[in-house]
Amino acid sequence: xxxxxxxxTKMTPVAFFVVKITPTTNRVKLGFSANHVGCGRILSxxxxxxxxxxxxxxxxxxxxxxxxxxxDERQQALFFxxxxxxxxxxxxxxxxxxxxxxLDGRPGFIVPVEGKTDQFIIGLELSFVIIQWDGEEGSxxxxxxxxxxxxxxxxxxxxxxxxxxxPRGRIFAGSIGYENPPGKFVPKQCxxxxxxxxxxxxxxxxxxxxxxLAWDLERKAxxxxxxxxxxxxxxxxxxxxxxxSNMKYIFDLQANGVEGFPDGATIDSEGNLWVxxxxxxxxxxxxxxxxxxxxxxxIPASQVTSVTFGGPDFxxxxxxxxxxxxxxxxxxxxxxxxMVTGVGAKGLRNVCYKLQ
Length: 356
Prior knowledge:
With 356 residues, this protein is mainly β. It has strands spanning 16-22, 27-32, 43-44, 54-58, 66-72, 77-82, 87-92, 97-102, 107-112, 119-124, 127-132, 142-149, 159-165, 171-176, 190-196, 199-207, 210-216, 221-226, 231-237, 244-252, 261-267, 273-278, 282-287, 292-298, 303-310, 316-322, 338-341. It holds the Pfam family SGL.
């Protein structure tokens, strides 16, 4: 099938604000630019040791359900999705060019295919498919191949949610329970899957809202989030086979006084996790070995959905958010995609999918 192009949209000027950390009080004061976005917010940190200010820029207009950010170092571009608007997106850092196109279904994630700049694997409804898109505004995306279908025997129907490539280029992605009414999901009807080329295997079941994924090769660890757990899981990880085992919880949001639901996640070069908190207006930095909260980075959107590192030196954080009307309208900049600098951490390369 061929996906439908979307109409061109005009970008608004980029707005930003600056966050300054005050180590002596473990509080952070927010200073806005002249074209500031939203209301003043406070960022709290348990270990506020950075001297440089944290700067948060709005790089897109509000999306309905922005998700799945993937930094492609070859193109120096960020790819991400708007699940509910059925669109995939590209943002080029150097030119600040933002483009998108519409699909015939809801995409849970987008990951480039290794060796290709115009081919991607996406989770489309309940299928893993390869699409071709040139990255231009409204340019049709063509489905080249359907690799596998999942959850075909589950009713009512869920959909594929967050997904990423592991260090060997295998796709890990899970599903999210049927949602009705908005914000209410059928519990434990979903699973986490691993796709190796065209062979799919169930990793674990009894999942409600499959979300954040991250790997640490040095510690042989796989980190995973079912948002309804309100916790972060750790598994032993075998990089050669992709198998995981020995699940345990390593961080509890409620026990650490964090409101909201853990969502998308990434890992930095020191092995610390960064976790988006939906309905929490923040990104957490967590030490997964000690199970402690290092800091809480305030984001000017309530529904923070995911996070990844990018840029030429992998020291820029990209944060997606949503503006879904669950408990009331989400005013801008809710739903925007943000670029965050000065967090004092560097990320790792986002891995592409190995089709062959």
